[in-house]
Amino acid sequence: MSDNRLSVFKTYKLYVGGKFPRSESGRVYEVTAKTSAADAAGKGTWLANAPQASRKDARDAVVAARKAFGGWSGATAYNRGQILYRIAEMLEGRKHQFVREVADAEGLSKSKAAAVVDAAIDRWVWYAGWTDKIGQIVGGANPVAGPFFNLSTPEPTGVVAVVAPQKSSFLGLVSVVAPVIATGNTAVVIASADAPLPALSLGEVLATSDLPGGVVNILSGKTAELAAPLASHQDVNAIDLTGADADLAKELEIAAADNLKRVLRPPVSRHHPEKEAQSSDRPQAVDGDDWSADPGTHRLTAFLETKTVWHPTGALGVSGSSY
Amino acid sequence: MASAFEYAPAPESRSVVDIAPSYGLFIDGEFTDAADGKVFKTVSPSSEEVLSEVAQAGAADVDRAVKAARKAFEKWSALPGSERAKYLFRIARIIQERSRELAVLETLDNGKPIKETRDADLPLVAAHFFYYAGWADKLDHAGYGANPRPLGVAGQVIPWNFPLLMLAWKIAPALATGNTVVLKPAETTPLSALFFADICRQAGLPKGVVNILTGYGDAGAALVQHPDVDKVAFTGSTAVGKAIARQVAGTDKKVTLELGGKGANIVFDDAPIDQAVEGIVTGIFFNQGQVCCAGSRLLVQESIQDELLDSLKRRLSTLRLGDPLDKNTDIGAINSQEQLSRITALVETGEAEGAERWSAPCDLPSSGYWFAPTLFTNVTQAHTIARDEIFGPVLSVLSFRTPDEAVAKANNSQYGLSAGIWTEKGSRILAVANKLRAGVVWANTFNKFDPTSPFGGYKESGFGREGGRHGLEAYLDVR
Questions:
Q1: A47-312 has which CATH code?
Q2: How many domains does chain B have?
Q3: What's the ipTM?
Q4: Whether residue B69 sits in one domain with residue B201
Q5: Which DSSP string corresponds to B59-115?
Q6: Do A271 and B252 touch (CB under 8 A)?
Q7: Using N-to-C axis directions, what is the helix angle for A77-93 and A95-106, rounded to 10°?
Q8: Is B116 a known active-site residue?
C-alpha cells in the first residue's frame, strides 16, 4: 500500500433513533486535536467537522428515547445484560480506532489512550453484569406487620438526559451512559463539546450491538444550547449534570424542577471547606469524578424508582397447625 | 336514605389531654417566644374553637434553631449508634404510653375521626420510631457501605393531614442516622409536634437534637434556604415541592420530596364487589380524602360500572359524618376553611365542566368545616377533577374496557404516587402492577402503611423514599 494514498475521511453524524442524521440545522463545527505532552506539534490539528446539533435535534432525540423506553425497560434484565456485553465485544474489535480517537481527543499518548479504551470496554462488562443483579441489591420483600406480601422493586425512571463529561471524552462518557441504560432507562446524551468524536463513533458501535434504536441517542454541539431544552423538556424524567460547569448545572437544575426531574448533580464533595473554597474560584469545575475508580452503584440507583406492591396473603393455617 | 337505626353518641373523653393556652417554639431544649413576639391561633376544625395560641417563627428563629441543631450535631452524630437507638426506643415507648392523649389531641387539632388517630395514626407513629431505632446501630449493614455518615442538620417541613405521623416519618430516620433536625409543622396543626417536644424532654434527648418551629410558609421557606441546612425533607403540595427544588439548585443540599397524587383505583369485572367498595371508600374517604396517596380516580370496568356505583352509593349513604371525637364517626371535619374552599371550588369546576355530581345525603354540622362524601360520574380524562389533586372527599369515576386501557388511563397523570388494583386474577394483578407508573400499588387493599415499607412517588409526586431500608438513604451522606 502506498504511503501517498489519500485517506478517506469519515463524516461524523449524530446518532438518533438508531439512525445517523446530520443536524437538522445543517450546522457543523470544527473539532481539533488536543495537544499531548508527547506531541506538542499536534496542537490544533483539524480532525473533523462535527454536527452542531440544535434544540430541534434534542427534541427529536427525546421523542426517539421515549419511543424506545417501553421495549427497552420491558426487556428482560438478562437480555439487557447480553446487549451491554455485546457492546463491549464490538468495542474490543474496533479498539484501534478508539485509541486513535481518544488520543486525539484528550491529548494522550497511544499507550495511555489504550489504557483508557480498555477501561471503557471493561466498564461495559461491569454494567452488563449489573442488569440482573441490581434488583436484588436494592429491592426485596418488606416484613410488614400484617397479612401482606410487600415487595419493593426498582424500575427505570424513564428518559434520562445525560450531560457527558467534558474532559473524559470516552471513559467518562461510557461511565455515565452505561449505568443509565443498564437498568432500562433510555438516554439522550450530550457529548463532550470539544471532544465529541469518540462519542459519535460509539454510536456506530451501539448501532451494531443489538441495542434497539433510540435507547441511546448521541448529540454533539454546544453543551448549554442542547442541555437547556432537555432540562426543561416535559417528557424527560431525569438529568445527569456531570459535564455541566457549576453555573450551567444550577441553571439546568432550576429548569429541571418544572416537572421534578431526578437530578444527578456534578460530583463535588459535601462539607469539605477547603474544597468549597476551591470551587468558588473554579467556575469550570467539571468532571470531578475519577473515572478509573470503582464506579460503585450510585449511577445505577440515581435513575431508579422504587415501586412497592402490597398483596394480601389471606390467613391459611389460623387453626394453629405449625406445618 | 334514612338510617336503619340510630346510634347513641359515644364521645371519647377530652380530659385525657391538657392543652395549654399558649406554646412557644422548641429550640435547644427550651420553649421560647418568637424573636419578634408573633403568635397565631390554632382552632379545632370541627367546632372552630380556639385550642391554643402558638409562637409564629420567623427567619431569626429559624437561624437560632439551625444553630442549635448544628451545635447538637457534633455530639449526637458521635454517639455510638446503640445509644442513639435507645433514645429512639424510649421515644417509641413513651408515644405508646401517651397514645390516647396524642390521638385525642390530633383529632382536636386536625379534625379527623378518633377512630383513625387511635387505630391508624398513633400506632404507626410509635411503630415508625421503634423501627428506625433498631437501625441506628446497624447502619454498616444497610447496604450503603461501611460506616455511612449523617448529613448534618435536616430541615423538615410537614403537612397537616397526618401531623404526628409525618413528623415520625421525618424525625425517626433522621435521628437514627445521626442527624439533628429542625422541623416545621403545618400552621393549622401545630400542637402534636409541640407535645412531641415534651416527649423528647421526657426521653432525655440531648438539647438541640430536635427543634420544633411552629409557623407559616415563610418560616418553612427560610428553613429550606438556610445555608447551614444540609438536608431538606418536605411533604406537601407539588407546587411548593417544585419551588423547593428550584431553591436548592446549585447547593449541596440533599432533598427528598413527597408531594401530590391522583391515584387510580382500578376495579376489574371479576373483583369481589363488596370488598372493592370497602377499598374504594378507604381509598378516598379515609381522612376525608386529605391523603396524598388517595385513590381519587376510580377506574371501573364498564360491564360492572352500574352495579358497582349502586353499591358504592349505598355504602356512602351509611357513612357517619360528624363529631370527630365520637367513636362511631367515619368522616370528620375538613382541616381548614382554606382547604374547604379549595375543595368546594374544584367540585364546582367539576359540575361546570359537565361531570355529574352525587353527594351522600348527610346533615352537616352548623359550625366547623365540613364536606359530604361526593362522587362524580361522566368524568373524562380532560376534566379538571380527573387531573388536579382535590385533597378532599371527592371521587372521580371513569370507566374502561380492557386492561391496557385501564393502565393507559391510570398512567395519564402528572402524578405517580399510588394506585389500586381489584381483581381475583393473580397474574393480572402482577401484570397491571408492573405497568403502573406509581410508587405504591395496593392489590385488593388500599391505604396500607408500614414503617418497613418504602413509600414515595414517581414523576411529579416527588422523589426519594420514606420507610424501610430505603428511607435511610435520604439521611446518609451517600450518593
A1: 3.40.605.10
A2: 2
A3: 0.96
A4: yes
A5: HHHHHHHHHHHHHHHHHHHHS-HHHHHHHHHHHHHHHHHTHHHHHHHHHHHH---HH
A6: yes
A7: 80
A8: no
